[in-house]
Amino acid sequence: MSSEKFSFKPIGFLYTPFTNPKTTPIQPLYDNDLEGTLEVNEEYVEGLKDLEGFSHIYVIYQPHATGRPKLRIKPLMQNVERGIFATRAHRRPNPLGLAVLKLEKIEGNILYVTGVDMLDGTAVIDIKPYCDRFDKVVNARGGWTQSCAEEGE
Amino acid sequence: MSSEKFSFKPIGFLYTPFTNPKTTPIQPLYDNDLEGTLEVNEEYVEGLKDLEGFSHIYVIYQPHATGRPKLRIKPLMQNVERGIFATRAHRRPNPLGLAVLKLEKIEGNILYVTGVDMLDGTAVIDIKPYCDRFDKVVNARGGWTQSCAEEGE
């Protein structure tokens, strides 16, 4: 099997209320309705056709400088080290972020979204429609996060 | 804003029943229970700790050769051209695939998964846990795919 490297370039950038890396949540603990905009580079605008029909989108993004990757990490506000692939922390071997955002509207090359938790100016690598029939999970078991959720309730 | 390129290298490979690109579904139309294995490179095994507690995982992968990117595309079995970002087709500016798979068990560096629709030997770039509180979408509106689903029902 090949282990060649793949390279990607941003298709746009996310603008959010979070300008300070130290106070930006890695991931909000619960649903959030924070608003942001995703500005798609002009050259890709044609690819946005039909997207507005979807209420939610996946955004794959490149987190800001995250430091050297780690295979074990203590998630935000947790005291136990977890395997990096069992977390959404950004210091992963390939630092990619994934978020489901609510798509409010599209004007030209600008997507108005809610649910943002990324730093202002985050580079976006891909946008995909959220589709119930591929993505909807019923009765998910949430591993270590489940007990945190129960504690918080 | 920077538009530098980012590069990633595979953390493992997916082994599936699909060895022929011509007959491999781009995305199954409905839930599928096809089994596969995701073999994580030994150097990353430590990062799998705690993952088995999750019933579902996101897998971000690099589709096999997809051809030149297109901004408009006719999705599988469809006659209307859609914007590429309103589809899950692979000929996107940054050809990344995203799937939610059911995680059956982990043995060493091997994840046993169901729901695969990728070609055998597909390179995996990242694995993330599926978490209801980040990822669950209630009452999603499915854009153009919604009418296809209704036709199929």
Low-pLDDT runs of chain A: none
| Greatest contact between two chains | A-B, 73 and 73 residues
The global form of chain A is globular
Assign the CATH architecture of chain A. Beta Barrel
Distance between the termini of chain A: 46 Å
Overall mean pLDDT of chain A: 87
Structural class by helix and strand composition of chain A: mainly beta
Q: Approximately how much helix is present in the residues of chain A?
A: under 10%
Multimeric status of the protein: homodimer
Strand segment count of chain A: 9
Beta-strand share of residues of chain A: 25-35%
- Going across the biggest sheet of chain A, name each strand in turn: 2-3-8-7-4-9
In N-to-C order, the SSE pattern of chain A is: EEEEEEEEEHH
Question: What is the CATH topology classification name of chain A?
Answer: Elongation Factor Tu (Ef-tu), domain 3
Per CATH, the class of chain A reads Mainly Beta
Characterize the biggest β-sheet of chain A. Answer: 6 strands, antiparallel, barrel
Find the CATH superfamily of chain A. YaeB-like
Q: What is the alpha-carbon Rg of chain A in Å? A: 16 Å
Number of helices of chain A: 2
